[in-house]
Amino acid sequence: MSTNTSKLLAVAVPRTVAVVRAVADDQLDLPTPCPDFTVRLLLGHLYDVVVNFQALAARREVDWSTKTDHLTPGWRDGFAAEADRLVEAWADPAAEEGVSPGMGLPQSTVGLMGPFDLTVHGWDLARATGLPYEPAAEVVAAGHHLMDEMGPMGRQMGAFGPEVPTGPGCTELDRLLGRAGRDPDWSA
After folding, report:
1. CA torsion sign, 97 to 98 to 101 to 107?
2. Of 53, 66, 92, 117, which is most buried, counting CB atoms within 10 Å of its CB?
3. What does the alpha-carbon distance between residue 108 and residue 105 come to, in Å, rounded to a whole number?
4. Residue 46 to residue 79: CA distance in whole angstroms
């Protein structure tokens, strides 16, 4: 079976996993477009995203404040395996039904946060490390839908930075990044 979320994750995961696998050990301390995160810290956050969103699919509460060093031997393969489990977790139609007990949001909205995070943070990592990254158009479109729904609240909660204006000739990805508080022209 599959759901809208699992279909989006199925195209977002391989693109982000490719970037994660290509990050070199000597790049872990580089800055990223995500304020206050080095590559190492952002990789740890992304690992938390793929694990915690598995729990959210099962309507379990998660503690985002817990910080675990995920960059232990085999971390690239571990991330890929957890990301695959994330796709599986959201393939159950029940995962998108009802309201998330911990977040008080529709599960379908919570589900969109996973591919959104993978896409924006995949771009963050790629930009920080000079790696190529091309997200799927359908994931970018879903990200815009999420920002339409959650952007103001996310900004109030500190999940997104202040919106960065983008020009009329920008790509849909650049526009999404700007809406999420990223400068699409960021460089280290």
Report:
1. positive
2. 53
3. 8
4. 9
Cβ-in-10-Å burial (0-12, 13-18, 19+) of 78 comes to: middle
Dist. CA 178–CA 186, nearest whole Å: 11
Give CA–CA dist 13/149, Å, rounded. Answer: 23
pLDDT tens, position by position, 26-43: 999 999 998 789 999 999
* pLDDT, tens digit (0-9, with 9 covering 90-100), for 77-133: 999 999 999 999 999 999 999 999 878 899 999 999 999 999 999 999 999 999 999
The answer to whether 125 touches 43, Cβ cutoff 8 Å, is yes
Q: How far is CA 48 from the centre of its chain?
A: 10
- How does pLDDT run across 145-171, given as a tens digit for each residue? 999 999 888 888 888 889 999 999 999
- Looking at residue 163, the DSSP 8-state letter turns out to be P
Domains in the chain, start-ordered, CATH in brackets?
Answer: 4-179 (1.20.120)
Cα–Cα distance, 79 to 85 (Å, whole number) = 10
Give ∠ CA 92-64-36 in degrees, rounded to 5.
125
Which of 133, 128, 131, 162 shows the shortest CA–CA distance to 32? 128
Cα angle 110-95-134, degrees, rounded to a multiple of 5: 55
Per-residue pLDDT band for 7 (boundaries 50, 70, 90) equals: very high
